[in-house]
Amino acid sequence: MEIARTVAYWIFVSCLPVLVITSNICWGVSEIRLYEYGFDKYRISQATGIDELELKRIAQHLIDYFNSKVDSAQVAVVKGGEEFDLFNERELVHLQDVKSLIQLDYWVQRGFLAFIVICGFVLLLWLGSRWWILVRGLFWGSLATLALMVVLALWAIFGFEQLFLLFHLVSFSNEFWILNPAKDYLIMLFPESFFYDVALFGFGAMILEALLVGGIAFGTLRLVGWRNV
Fold this sequence. Notes:
The chain is mainly alpha-helical and 229 residues long.
């Protein structure tokens, strides 16, 4: 029984960093204000000749596509009074790959959330009056999340190109992610600098979340005595 409790405890602790990361990705993918921020900051309307209302429509279409509300990433866009299909075949293949990753993230997030809820519930039943051990698990999970996010944030700040390249090499089994910024609209809409900003926003948000959860857990542990930390 003690071995089972220990295994459940460390599953609970190790699930927290994954849950935080996947949950933030879920949020970011569907947050249209993030897309609009990039369009505004990098003057995408001027760079592409597509007006801001059309850009917002494109962003919403991609969000719908990533969330399986529409079947194709292709979108007809009006530019200079003429309508055309925005993405070429190479871009569509890459967007399909991106969608697959996002859908995987959704499933991982749900799975790890289920693990945390189940393990937490089982531990509460086993621990009874020693519930603070579960709070300690939250504290250590938050600490692990914080450490990981700080390392990744520093890597992004000082070596984002390397991190960005490594992500693509690990995540994609083809080279359709290599696009031409002179003619491929996907990379015009979302330049590397946009992803740099998104990475810093994401790591910053996760650091704050880890500090919040860890701070609450630590404060609770102080109430029951320093020895329990």
